[in-house]
Amino acid sequence: MRLLRLRLANYRGIDESEVQFGRHGLTIVEGPNETGKTSLSESIGLLFDYLDSSKHRSIDAVRPAHHDAGPEIELEAESGPYCFTYFKRFYKKPETTLTIKSPNPENHTGREAHERAQKILSETIDIDLWRALCIQQGEAIQQANLSRQTSLSAALDIAAGGHQADPREESLFDKVKEEYGRYFTERGSEKKELQEAQKAQAESEAKVVSLEKQIQNLEKDIIRAADLGLELERLKKQEQDLRVDLFDYMKSLDEIKSLETVLETARLKLESAQKSEQAAKRDKAVRQDLIEAVLKAQKAHAELEESSKSSTASVKKSETDMEKAQSDSFATEAQRKAAESLLNLRRADFDYFNNKLHLEQLKERKERIDRAREEAALSEEVLVKNSVDEAILKTIQKAERSLITARAMLETGAPNVLLRGLTDLDFQIDGEHTTIAKDEERNLSVSDRIRVTIPGSLQMDLTAGSSSSDLLKKVEEVKQKLDVLCNDAGVSNTDEARQSFEARREAQQSIARRKEVEQENLRDLTYEELERKVLGLGKGVPAYPTARVPKPDLPPNLASAKEALRSAEAGLERDNEAWEVARTELDSARKVRDGLRERYQKIRVELDLKADELKRAKDELSRSRGNASDDYLESEHLKCTKAVHKEEENVKSAEANLCGKEPDRVRILAETAQGSLQTAEKKREAAQQENTEVRTRLKVFGEEGLHEKLHAAQSHLNYIRQANKAMIRRASAAKLLYVTMKDERDKARRAYVAPLKEKIERLGRLVFNDSFEVEVTENLSVASRTMDGCNVPFDSLSGGTKEQISMISRLACAMTVSKDGGASLILDDALGYTDPERLKLMGAVLAKAGQECQIIILTCVPDRYSNIGEATVVRLG
Amino acid sequence: MSFCFLHTGDWQLGMTRHFFSEGVQERFAQSRFDAIRELGRIAKEEDCRFMVVCGDVFESNLVDRKTVSRAIEALKDVPVPVYLLPGNHDSLNAASVYRATTFLERKPPHVHVIEDTNPIRVDEGIEIIGIPWPSKRPLQDLVALTTGQLEAAVDTTRVCVAHGMVDSLSPNLDDPALISLSSAEAAIAQNKIHYLALGDRHSLTKVGGSGCVWYAGTPEQTDYNEVKPGFALVVTINGGGVTTKEVNIGRWKFIERDQIDLNTKEDIDALRAWVENLGDKERTVVKLGFVGGLSLSLHSELEELIYHVQEILGAVETRMDNLVVIPEDADFTDLGFSGFASNTVERLRSNVEDSGSDADTSRDALALVVRLAGREL
Description:
The complex is a heterodimer.
Chain A: E1 2-11, E2 14-20, E3 26-30, H1 37-49, H2 57-61, E4 72-79, E5 82-89, E6 95-102, E7 106-109, H3 110-124, H4 127-133, H5 150-159, H6 167-183, H7 192-385, H8 390-413, E8 416-420, E9 425-429, E10 432-436, E11 441-445, E12 449-454, E13 458-463, H9 466-489, H10 494-522, H11 527-547, H12 558-627, H13 630-659, H14 663-702, H15 706-767, E14 773-776, E15 782-787, E16 790-793, H16 799-816, E17 825-828, H17 836-850, E18 855-859, E19 871-875
Parallel strand pairs in A: 3-18, 3-19, 17-18
Antiparallel strand pairs in A: 1-2, 1-4, 4-5, 5-6, 6-7, 8-11, 9-10, 9-12, 12-13, 14-15, 15-16
Helix pairs in contact in A: 5-15, 6-15, 7-10, 7-11, 7-12, 7-13, 7-14, 7-15, 8-9, 8-10, 15-16, 15-17, 16-17
Chain B: E1 2-8, H1 22-45, E2 51-53, H2 65-76, E3 82-84, H3 101-106, E4 111-113, E5 120-123, E6 126-130, H4 142-148, E7 157-163, H5 181-189, E8 195-199, E9 205-206, E10 213-215, E11 231-238, E12 241-248, E13 253-261, H6 265-277, E14 284-294, H7 296-312, E15 315-325, H8 329-333, H9 340-354, H10 359-376
Parallel strand pairs in B: 1-2, 2-3, 3-4, 6-7, 7-8, 8-10, 13-14, 14-15
Antiparallel strand pairs in B: 1-11, 5-6, 9-10, 11-12
């Protein structure tokens, strides 16, 4: 539809306003606010939507506020093949006229005009798409909702190279989806109905199985009942047979029992006879024992008497032997004691000499220590007085060497006087007397001044020059220093110092030596112990010779004392041995005597006992014979033996009788029969019990009508199976149809989205850059923009960019549908978010779109659209 | 001496059929109880001395108490003595229905259960030799065994009442329980018995050439493969001669049609006409097996027809394994799709033509799309 002219009168605040639109391209309707720009786009909708008689609030809203007149809308437009003028006045003098100029002139008024206009519109344009594409004030950023726009879809289908889509296909798809939804959730899971149907089938199957099982159990019971009937018969018969057998066995057992009693009696009699025979035999043996005992006692008594006699003689001899041994023992013991006394004396003598020697040695050691201690004490004193140690000596010696050096230098530097004796002569040098022999020469060095005096004859003063005087002075200084050192050391000169040093060293050595001497002489003793020993020995040793017995004599020396000691020791050893031998012999003799005495006593006792025993045996025998003679006992024994033989015969006969009845076999057979009978009874009871149970079950369950129940359950299952099969089949068909159709629909959508995408991108590249791409969804909305490789979802874009892409998208749609069913695109107050630079570029986009479709721009800011190229401009207000 | 009696059997009381809905099942069951009363009426009408029921009186020993009670109620209305023989379905085992409390407590005095082979004196000079089944699977020919032990009858007419298949009619000759026809005929020839009343076979059948051995069949049909069901026999024994009279009792029909060609609309119309032509529809059970190929729209028509038939007949079983649904262009041209719906249809049709694993589902999906689009159009 193309808008050619629109006139409004009495519309909101507009008295009258008419706008002529450019047939092609862009028309800019500019004007300040409240000049009716928005009313233009609004009025077209009202014109087509409402009857002139409508009291709808939308109509009410456009009534003029200040005067009572009906709002008028008049539109001249082209749509498809139609070119028409459509007029409506609402409320006041309502009127509708439609004048069609081409293709065929038509005139309509009133409701007819309204309906005809609607028909033309529905025939030629997609009114929904038109409304979707137009931008109303304040919605420029939003994308148009194009998901259900049939003309756009048709145009895109054609553009995609397909057939034009039938609008009913979407509706069909909805129905297919609805059918699918009966069985499946959106995620493809089975719905409750399907699940419950399957559950019901499972339950029904379980019920059938359960009933079949019950019937099978009953069938088993039926067979079992028949088997049990036979089993019971068999067991009854078996029981009867066993009872007969058992009766026979019991009868035999009674007979066996009476024979056993007979045997038992015979055995008792035999036992009694045997006991009598045993008694007679025992009496006989007792008598014989008595006789033998008397004989034995007599013999033993005689033997003991003989032994007694020989024992008395032996005792006497042993006593004599013992007395002799005792006297020998006394003699040797006296000898031993004498030897022992002598040995003690000789040992004391030896000790005396030994101690004497020891005392001397100890004294010597003590003296050595004492001496060393005295020397050390003296040395300590020397060390206190003498301070010349090695260092001091060395200092003095150094000073001495300095003096000698100074003197030598003085001598070499001083004038020399050679004295030669012409005769032996006494003279003085510096007042000191000296002599010189004939032809003796003596040099005198004059370091300073020398006076040589020949007493009574001559005095000669020799004086050195000035250089000698310096050397002399030096000598004096050095000498003075030496003197000071000597003085400090407590010595007069160097030699004395040296002696002092020697004396000091000796003193130190003496102190050191004292320790050695002490160690050497004390050994393991302390000095006090040593002293005590010396004192002890000093008292004891001299007293010994006087205290000792006079005889034998004290040996002259230690060696002889030692010899005497050894001799005494040997003597004692000999006497000891002799004493030991004598004592052993005595003990032996005593033992022999004691042994013989004891034996003699024993024999005496035994003899007495045996005499008593013999007497008793004789008494016993005589008493026994008084009761029963030996012959009587013999005849009694013979009688009893015969009785035993007789009873043995009786027992044998009874045993043979019993054995003939096979008692063990009969007893085992009877027990077995008894056991078998019990087993058979138990089996029968168990079978009876089971039979009762089986028959009870059959009675209880057999009348429950399981047959019909099973058939009913099977029928129900059959019905459910068929119903489920049908339902599953329907569900499968719905699923396949839905999946296939959705796939095809998606494919088609993807195909027809392509031309729109291409158009949007072509326009968009004018604004953005050549890398501009968009992702268009199946609902024909832009999902995201990609530029320079960067993809940004639409919702995340800036307001300006959203606005631009939304407008580009609308323009692309309008261009797509412009050939057939297209409608003029009205943009009310768009591009408010777009910056001036982009406005310029959007101008180029609008200009490009304007070449293919009619675009009407309503704006109160005309500068926004100063770069849209050629356009029809209409000014309002 | 001349007398007549009613020979029947295989009442199969308590029988159920899986293809019956609950209501139809009830009607089917009731018809069998009604048949007992009808037999009683005929027995009286024909002046029968007694009625013998040759086994399988009950479908199972485990039938419901209600079934037993209703059977006894029906038997009470029979005006002649009734002799019930336990057969293979209601054998005289430990769970026998004839020993159930309900049966024993309510059984009227003129109803007798044949529990052994001892001759039963029914009337002066008339004996029944019953041969009940002690278990489901006897291991020998019970008739031969029993008649072998009989002496020739003197001044007595003997009706032997037995159950089981005779060897001349059985495809399974290994069955040890088969009744030897020659042996039975020999017993008749030897004057041991004079008529052998048999049960087990549900079709009225004369066995052998003696005219004295008969299956009475079931009084109400139970399955499709029964040749002459729905009858009873009025047997008259006059001296040595036996005459029989067939009496129709049954009201239910089981019809099986296989290999019904369905390719065109005419075929479907013919089927519809055939159904319309059936009499006593509510007691008619049909089993239909189809062959051929139908378009989606014709298949829909067939389904509608079957749905309708199910409403009016006793029961309908169908087998469509050999009926192929072939989507045709005509099925879709009317829909007028050109976009994705059209592509969807093409893909599904391709699946059908490829006969892959999802061919059947694709066919159903196509039918669904036609239905949904039809709803839309």
